[in-house]
Amino acid sequence: MTVVDLFEHSTVASLVAYLEQGESDTVVKGAIPVRTTGSERPLFLIHDNTGQGLWFPLLAAQINSEIPVYGLPGVPLDEPQLQTIEGMAARLVEIMRTVQPVGPYRFAGWSLGGVLAYEVANQLIGQDQIVEFAGLIDAGCPVSRSGTNQPHARNQSSQTALLGPCEGLARETPPTAERWSTPSGLKKVANELNFEELFRQCRESGALHESLVNHMAQEIEPYLVRLMAHAHANENYVAKPIPIPIYLFTAEELAPPDPLMGWGSVISERQIHLIRAPGTRHSLMDDPHVVTLGRALSIAIAQASKQRPGLPETQYCPHVTLQVSKRSNTPVFCVPGAGDNVIGFLELAGAIGSECPIYGLQPRGVEGALEEPDYVVTRPRDAEDRRITPLANL
Question: Where are the domains of the chain?
Fold first, then answer.
């Protein structure tokens, strides 16, 4: 069974009937149909740093019932994990467009999901799609931390990643000498042991975090690999300005010094709709705070649907006339190379002569005012790496 199966079939009887029939199309799509009824356009909820979506139905239950809701979980644990925000967003866009082929689109993400939501907006605009609502729920802008964090997640092993929660547990419990020494001692030999052996020693010494106690090592290691991939992607992402408003929901308790959480350094503050929500970043999805958050999301979506801005990207025409001919000869179309523009073909047009009409196809984004076209995810050279290449560079 998958998480998708559990969300779709909430009773034992319906789940048994489903398993007897085989897999459904929603597993292939990668989207969790949390609520498929409603007369409005759907809302897509994007996973947090864990890659899971256990909060999807909790929040969806508080959102306007006329809005269908689909959850977008992370890359499955048994697949190679993507290492960039751009790659993760490209996967999410593909899933969204499988469920809803054309915009306007509505989506929101929590924590890392908010960063992904921002990049999803960027890529959808690059595909000439309308983004009606982009919600960022307690998501800080990575660029605000650029140069202050040491990128370590890519080189971190699953063994040392396992000790992170163990050290956290040691700090939360009474500071006995044994409690503090166990994670510290295991850390010195972590990379000399395989993951299963280290997991066993953590369990036997009582250092294993309570959230991991009832699981096996082979269940936990892929989960930690995904966490490391998400951390690496977030640390290395640099957000680009986008021409639409975003809706930033921040927790009222333990609020950061910068109320805009760094996004004001990327886009104009006039583009940011700031909504305060009760609770902390961890309690936002718990009762009673999730009720208020869901209502605030519903109100913001309704406002966004009335104030949808026009995008110049959708009006862009790449066709540029370089030379007109009075004769009806077959025209020549010139496509510039990476980073270049059609001006480079003027001398060629003159050399060809006036007998032939010549046109240039100007790529979008050369003048710096419009979003560049879609991104392409190249196939990985190995199981650990996938890179994003702008079409203009191919």
Answer: 31-149+236-312, 153-233, 313-393
Q: Burial code of 173-203, b = ≥16 C-beta within 10 A, e = fewer?
A: eeeeeebeebbeebbeebeeeebeebbebbe
What is residue 110's three-state secondary structure? strand
- The amino acid sitting at 29 is K
pLDDT in tens, 277-317: 999 888 999 999 999 999 999 999 999 999 876 777 777 78
Q: What is the largest CA-CA distance in the chain?
A: 91
State the pTM of this model.
Answer: 0.73
Closest C-alpha to 72, from 100, 99, 50, 53: 53
Q: What is the fold, at CATH topology level, of the domain defined by 31-149+236-312?
A: Rossmann fold (3.40.50)
Secondary structure class of 105 (helix, strand, coil): strand
Using DSSP bridges, classify how beta strands 32-35 and 69-72 pair: parallel, antiparallel or unpaired.
antiparallel
3-state SS of 168-201 is HHHHHCCCCHHHHHHHHHHHHHHHHCCHHHHHHH
